[in-house]
């Protein structure tokens, strides 16, 4: 029996088991920290096929799906309780996506880009003023996405430390107790409920106010429960994953100095470099879960209704059948059909925002700190442990 998550050899290196599983056992049975069993997919075609199937969504509290964490530990997401009031499949889900996606169009991201760039430059200037070595994650990687998503939602950025605490509890695998996770959810729910009430009284130009106005005008917009789940979900997703990805992207590019020098010499490669960093990331986290509501065939094997499937996006993104020299980081790679944002009707709603933030961060760092380098050997970088999302605890840099 294979224990999951798989063991890593280093903070930036993939598990050695990925290649063997893709080749010999692409639909593997794994045992989760809870002791429950699930199926693990590691091939690109299988992961894309399942994620693109609108019949299957992430587990909910009612499914009786495989538990991720042991009883007594783990946050709401780890136990399948999060976002239970938000529509997650069928037409209700597509309607919800249409309502929220208006704020994540390419046009809006283009309009937001100057604000992101200005914020990134100020954060880099503050980091430089404090002197090196510095932790890029705490100086830039964490505050930038928080400032951006708070601005979009109309939430006070001064509360960012509270958001970080609540997010960690929601995404806890083994870090939080059930009591700690429940308390965080109660606090977060009360905070967001009060914020929504305030915006009903005095709406501003932000996502929540817009959704409230639409509900009042159309009479068929989001319910209070929908608004609450949307606000909480966007605040967690809008900063946690991008925070970790900024640090990982910079660490990957600096781990082999020739990569950074290539970008300094040719900044036009920034967009392609961001996509390759997303593909090459071996530290995404637990993976995307799907609950099979009916029998389905994957890779020639029939999986029965009630099966919990884990899609390893990172492993799929290293599939040699899809990516030439998949184990190499190629900043010129094109095309690059990576699956880090998922696929199909449930793909990541905020991927255009994440891409914009990553591109802007890289552009600003290349311009302002072309001599940037890691302040520690790569083998001293440490992975974030105990959460469903991956990341590095710190990214020490100097310039």
TrEMBL record:
<dbReference type="InterPro" id="IPR036396">
    <property type="entry name" value="Cyt_P450_sf"/>
</dbReference>
<comment type="similarity">
    <text>Belongs to the cytochrome P450 family.</text>
</comment>
<keyword id="KW-0408">Iron</keyword>
<keyword id="KW-0503">Monooxygenase</keyword>
<keyword id="KW-0349">Heme</keyword>
<keyword id="KW-0560">Oxidoreductase</keyword>
<dbReference type="InterPro" id="IPR001128">
    <property type="entry name" value="Cyt_P450"/>
</dbReference>
<dbReference type="Pfam" id="PF00067">
    <property type="entry name" value="p450"/>
</dbReference>
<keyword id="KW-0479">Metal-binding</keyword>
<dbReference type="InterPro" id="IPR017972">
    <property type="entry name" value="Cyt_P450_CS"/>
</dbReference>
<dbReference type="InterPro" id="IPR002397">
    <property type="entry name" value="Cyt_P450_B"/>
</dbReference>
<protein>
    <submittedName>
        <fullName>Cytochrome P450</fullName>
    </submittedName>
</protein>
